[in-house]
Amino acid sequence: MAKRRGRRTKHQERIAKERIELLLELALKSSNEDKSEQSRRFVELALLISKRYNQRLTKSQKLKICRGCNNFLTSKNSRNRLSPKGWKIVTCLECGSVSRHVVEN
């Protein structure tokens, strides 16, 4: 049988999205149990799947991941502040990277 070429099937893309969501849920559970290395590995796997199958993370999923160290950001390992100008400033306490997001009303 000839090898498939071109885009992935819709079925494969749906499975990739489901697995990304599952891995991020597992990352949340393990970060709440103070297993930061396991949580980081789940996030890395989710990012690898999203790259391989060309699936973008949703905005809420992106905001929960540190871009510097791939850590899953929770209240234990990040500092969240609101600036008077309408920005949400998230600082990762592991690597010190700062991300700023517009607060939507």
What does this structure look like?
The protein is an alpha+beta fold. It has one domain (10-102). It contains 3 helices and 3 strands, in the order H-H-H-E-E-E. The protein has helices spanning 10-32, 36-52, 59-63, and strands at 78-82, 87-92, 98-102. A 3-stranded antiparallel sheet has the order 1-2-3, with no helix packed on it. Strand 1 and strand 2 form a beta hairpin. The longest helix is centred in the N-terminal third of the chain and has 23 residues, at 10-32. The termini are far apart. The mean pLDDT is 91.
What structural keywords apply?
globular; about 100 residues; 3 helices; alpha+beta
How are the SSEs placed, and which strands pair?
Blueprint: H1 10-32, H2 36-52, H3 59-63, E1 78-82, E2 87-92, E3 98-102
Antiparallel strand pairs: 1-2, 2-3
Helix pairs in contact: 1-2
Summarize the structure.
With 105 residues, this protein is of the alpha+beta class. The protein has helices at 10-32, 36-52, 59-63; strands spanning 78-82, 87-92, 98-102.
Distance between the termini: 54 Å
Classification by helices and strands? alpha+beta
Helical coverage, percent range: 40-55%
Main sheet properties? 3 strands, antiparallel
